[in-house]
Amino acid sequence: MPLRSDHPLIGTWRITLPDGSCSETYRVRADGTTLVFSREEVAESVFTISDQPDKDGFYEETDTIVKDNGKRDCSGEVTAPGKPITNYLQFHPSGNLFVMCVERSLDRCIGPFIRVRGKAI
């Protein structure tokens, strides 16, 4: 299902490992698809996300990898397509950062994902 044109997730995002050794880039499209680059991995996914945040500021997002080149990602893993994963996203008020959490809490999250501006990937 397509997203509204001003949904905060649409765009290109990058997350870098804490030691700076690897970055992942996510190109999130309004048609509900994502293209991901992580080390040698290139993956495509489909996703759904809530239109508005809940009362605590979280968007529920479910992502399913549909295609993967079989190469290792930043964590050294090879991602198997087909398994839906649900996470909860919370955006910074600027709209240029978000964290991805395993539940509707900031206790177990990764990030920040930083909006990429300028040149296309």
Question: What structural keywords apply?
Answer:
46% strand; Lipocalin; eight-stranded antiparallel beta barrel; mainly beta; Lipocalin-like domain-containing protein
Q: Which descriptor suits the 3D outline?
A: globular
CATH class placement: Mainly Beta
Q: Major sheet, described briefly?
A: 8 strands, antiparallel, barrel
How much is the average pLDDT?
A: 94
CATH architecture: Beta Barrel
Strand order of the largest sheet: 1-2-3-4-5-6-7-8
Structural class: mainly beta
CATH domain topology: Lipocalin
- Our measurement of the CA-to-CA distance between the termini, rounded to an integer number of angstroms, reads 24 Å
What is the succession of H and E elements? EEEEEEEE
User: Which segments are poorly predicted (pLDDT under 50) over 5 or more consecutive residues?
Assistant: none
How many domains in all? 1
What does this molecule look like?
It comes from Duganella flavida. This is Lipocalin-like domain-containing protein. The protein has 121 residues and is mainly β. The chain has one domain: Lipocalin (Beta Barrel), CATH 2.40.128. The protein is 0% helix and 46% strand. It has no helices and eight strands. Strands 1-2-3-4-5-6-7-8 form an eight-stranded antiparallel barrel. A hairpin with a 7-residue loop joins strand 7 and strand 8.
